[in-house]
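Forwarding the complex inputs:
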Amino acid sequence: MAEVPDELMYSQEHEWVAGPVEPESVVTVGITEYAAAALGDVVYVEAPQVGDTVTAGQVCGELESTKAVSELYSPVTGVVVEVNGALADSPELINADAYGEGWILKVTVTAPAKALLTAEQYSAITE
Amino acid sequence: MTSSPPATAARLSPLHERHEALGAALTDFAGWSMPVRYSSEVAEHHAVRTAAGVFDVSHMGQIHVTGPGAAAALDHALTARVGAVGVGRAKYALLCAPDGGVLDDVIVYRVLADSFLVVANAGNAPLVARELAARCAGFACEVADASDGSALIAVQGPRARDAVLALTRGGGDDLVAGLRYYASAPVVAEGGIPVTVARTGYTGEDGYEVFCSAHDAPAVWDAVLRHGGPTGAVPCGLAARDSLRLEAGMPLYGRELTSRTTPAEAGLGWAVALEDSAGGPRDFVGAPALAAAAARVASWREDPTAAPADARVLVGLVGDGRRAARTGYPVLDEDGALVGEVTSGAPSPTLGRQIALAYAHPRVAAEGTAVAVDVRGRREEMSVCALPFYRRPREGGGRTEDAGHG
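Prediction (whole assembly, two chains):
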């Protein structure tokens, strides 16, 4: 069973968010273990660039696995302040450590959270 | 998400419980619930190239054609002179429609002089059984679809032989040891289980396929993994099976082969015996259309500039971009003109490059031609290369192998 850390928030599109989702705060975003397992071995990550605006619920990038391509949705609205450079050479970090080394981007939040799920709620939809 | 949970009506393999116990991610494939991966498909792929992988391919069709007229019937029904193979040998052949379109690709094993086993792709098994029954109707033989009740376990890789010898120790392992490529023998596996072992496969590695009853499949599976485990054999799913066959340049029905492709375009002219032993035209279903297609494609290859705009031949593409070419992506020439379409593509775990099969116009089919693939709106540069992408290293005295199957 994939891990679902209690302290994180989650989106319907299988992203996790670390940090308080309120304006001015910086949150970290990645995809869940459940999503990484479903994708299979990730071979390429296309993330937004620093300075890009992202909108909650909208596509902001792509994750390519050996078999297929999946869209990356942003779970929050804000401005990208950092992108995980390690994923360029080691996209498999997403499979190995989805909640840690496999983080994808950091965003300065500009709008309050909408429709994010608690760990319990996310576990329920992935059961 | 990429893998879809199987529909409740999906058929279950006789090894389904084993896959669940191993924690396999399951997917729907041709109406069957089959393992797509057990751990990491890249790890499984590497295991087959360096040790051994064990695949459940029980979903494939198994059709028996038996009787004194079976050889002649299959010669008539299929593109290859299957009736000419000796007992205990096998042959790759195509089932084509009268217009030359490919309906399935199969391997036919001659089990006894008057008994043949046709192994068809899972999705095509009922159609192949029906077509064979219809085509064999005028001959002294019977066609029986034995797909239900049968199982097939593929053991592929440099260490596969050790595992299969151990599996059949004391029950015919000497016969297994002597099996040449594309040969088979009925033997007895551990526990007294009757199996047929064939030296065939779909990965580009040395390997074997073990035929048994559905009832015996779990015991055979357990024994293979037990014997192979110490030398690195692992269960492998359909994802690894696909990346392995792609590296080996092998076609997959539904991608490189469809009812709208002829063997000549797919580079499978070698599997079509247009002539009989006397050198005259051989009479079989689709022969006139296939002869015309072969001549047409030959003329394209000789003079690509004279080929019509919609002429297409199968090519291999290789590239070093960050993103893979995938099924359906357009292939463009250096000026950006559309010259073809990708049929299969993925990152190659063994080569560390992007590889793809594509149908492209003959004028860009020469090895080394620079092309581009439109990958979701951006050009990725690739070049045409010879097939297969990967050829396994041979020890001295290696066997010969026809291109495109293995």
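Chain A touches chain B at residues 14, 35, 37-41, 43-44, 62, 64-70, 95 (CB under 8 Å).
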